[in-house]
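Recap from last week: sequence in, structure out.
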Amino acid sequence: MKDVKIDTLETMPKLLRILCIKIKSLEKTVQRNNGSKGKRMVCCSSLKKNELAFIFYILMDEGILFFERNGPSQNRSLLQTFFEKNFSYRGETGLQMPLKSISREFSEAKGYTYEEKQCRLLDSIINRLERRKERIKLKSQ
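Predicted structure tokens:
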């Protein structure tokens, strides 16, 4: 644009074309940048949906995670909505899936209908934490 003189009427169409090209280029850049920011980021999990729900329920039931300490039903509703909006789980195909609804899984965790599965999951997590604890101890020696 430096080579275009603005002092004559003949240069105006050329100047306008150049300006339009620059604006379109800028719009494309903004759209590209906003496109990546437009995707909502969620916390991914290596757990299956029911395992993730069981962990969330246990942490909520034990009072480790909470919004409302004095209102258990309100707390469950708030936490469930929070989890559904902010987490994904490992689907059957191994891909991350949005955690759309965990009401059924929360009810299963509360009713202990899957007691054995919950115990296996807790044992697995406890083992992982114990291995980590051992690694920490080894590092400090």
